[in-house]
Design brief:
Protein name: Glutathione S-transferase rho
Number of helices: 10
Strand content: 5-15%
CATH architecture of the largest domain: Up-down Bundle
CATH topology of the largest domain: Glutathione S-transferase Yfyf (Class Pi), Chain A, domain 2
Distance between the termini: 44 Å
Order of helices and strands: EHEHEEHHHHHHHH
Number of domains: 2
Oligomer: single chain
Shape: globular
Organism: Oncorhynchus kisutch
InterPro entries: Glutathione-S-Trfase_C-like, Glutathione-S-Trfase_C_sf, Glutathione_S-Trfase, Glutathione_S-Trfase_N, GST_C, Thioredoxin-like_sf
CATH class of the largest domain: Mainly Alpha
GO molecular function: glutathione transferase activity; maleylacetoacetate isomerase activity
Length: 226
């Protein structure tokens, strides 16, 4: 079945990474895959555009089914291959509700991380303002503290939606990992750090760890002051 799948991806991209984690969890190793370079703008190539007309990664195809939005791909894989690997959607209503809440709530963290990390990349030099930089950093700091608070309510060794690994972890972990990659302190945010360290040892995460992170374990320091 995995041979009918094609994934075009970029190293370190949380959307790409979560799809790869889902594929591993659902025991779908052996799919067709190709690592592309954002720096070389390979995500704008015809190969990608033929699957994803937005020119973005991931570009994922299973047979004739195309799912380029990472949430859609992960949810599709769980639905289509429910009997393979661990069940990623909890049966309990409380756990399932929490799973969906955290899955979609993390979009706030992703957005605020991007506003800080990529501000200079996105905003032309003449349009940059110290007030905007300050506001973006304050918004991100508030968001990170909110997530640290969520993890303070989670039992040690538990996952985002309870004792069982779920789609919430598939979706959220790559964003948390991205924050630590850019210098977030495990000392200032010990609960987030404990979750990050626990998840790093999960086989699906280890098998899909971004290759350029392996080559260069030392990440950025954009978030070291947070």
């Amino acid at each position: 079945m995995a041979k009918d799948m094609t994934l075009l991806w970029g190293s370190g991209s949380p959307p790409c990474w979560r799809v790869m984690i889902a594929l591993e969890e659902k025991q779908l190793q052996g799919y067709n895959q190709k690592l592309l370079s954002f720096e070389k703008a390979e995500h704008k190539s015809k190969e990608v555009l033929d699957i994803n007309p937005r020119g973005q990664l991931p570009a994922f195809k299973h047979g004739d089914n195309i799912l380029n939005e990472s949430y859609a791909a992960c949810m599709y894989l769980e639905s289509r291959f429910r009997s393979q690997g661990p069940q990623l959607i909890p049966e309990g209503q409380l756990e399932q509700a929490l799973m969906y809440q955290r899955m979609f709530e993390v979009l706030n963290l992703s957005d605020k991380l991007s506003n800080v990390i990529y501000y200079n990349y996105r905003v032309p030099e003449g349009e940059r303002h110290d007030s905007a930089i300050k506001r973006n950093k304050e918004n991100l700091a508030t968001e990170i503290k909110l997530w640290e608070g969520y993890f303070q309510k989670v039992e040690v060794g538990s996952y985002l939606a309870g004792k069982a690994f779920s789609l919430a972890d598939v979706i959220v972990f790559p964003v948390i990992a991205y924050a630590f990659r850019f210098g977030l302190s495990t000392e200032r945010y010990p609960k987030l750090g404990a979750y990050y360290n626990m998840m790093k040892d999960r086989p699906s995460v280890k098998a899909t760890w971004p290759p350029h992170w392996l080559e260069n374990p030392q990440g950025g320091d954009t978030l070291k002051e947070f």
